[in-house]
Amino acid sequence: MTGSTETPQPPHTAAPPPAAGKPSRATPQARRSDATRGAILAAARERFASDGYERATIRAIAKDARIDPSMVMRYFGSKEGLFAAAVTLELRLPDLTRVPPDEVGRAMVGHFLGLWEENEELTAVLRVGVTNQAGAERMQDVFRDQLLPVARQVCPDPEQVPARAALCAAQLLGLALTRYVLRLPPARALTREELVAWLGPTVQRYLTAPNP
């Protein structure tokens, strides 16, 4: 008599848990949100570049992005906030290690004057930065990421780099505010050569002089 045999069944195993630290897949809503934000920023960059900050409008940017203007306000709060998020500021600061030690102040002033004269976005960001939190944060990012490393090249005391860089920023941004934003006639009347001659020694002292 032959007994019946049963095919052994493999034990049931649970599906393995997700790997620790593995990012979860984005939801469709999150992907749509990212796509909308990206479309707004792309349209804003194009519109600010073609029309300038003053003439660019939320309505025109929304039309370019093919969305309702209320969506722009939902994501960025205001035109100022949108501009601060959209604009990319690259100061292209010089390598001060290649500048004669006694010329770094004049080099910095001359470089910034060239930037302010050629790039309307810088003036617009400065204007936004004094009235809008997003604009202020963008200027803080530029200071931290671009000005501090350059100041570090020539400052005699590494611990004083932030303070010395802040003094340089106060001098250069003060010039930009009076000459390009407030447009004070005496500030605008000064030639580039006069500005370099006046401000160069001051910036030089901030960057390289012994601690007072």
The N- to C-terminal Cα distance equals 109 Å
How much helicity do the residues have? 55-70%
Global structural class: mainly alpha
Number of strands: 0
State mean pLDDT (0 to 100 scale).
Answer: 85
Q: Count the helices. How many?
A: 10
Q: Which parts are unreliable, with pLDDT below 50 for 5 consecutive residues or more?
A: 1-18
- Principal-axis shape equals elongated
Q: How much of the sequence is in beta strands?
A: under 5%
Order of helices and strands: HHHHHHHHHH
Q: What is the radius of gyration computed over CA atoms, rounded to a whole number of angstroms?
A: 27 Å
Taking the sheet with the most strands, its summary is: none
Question: Can you characterise this structure?
Answer:
It is a single chain. The protein has 212 residues and is mostly helical. It is built from 10 helices and no strands. The N and C termini lie far apart (109 Å).
State the main characteristics.
single chain, 212 residues, mainly alpha, 10 helices, 66% helix, elongated, disordered N terminus
Topology overview:
Layout (H helix, E strand, L loop, with lengths): L27 H28 L2 H8 L3 H8 L2 H8 L17 H15 L1 H10 L3 H20 L8 H21 L3 H5 L2 H17 L4
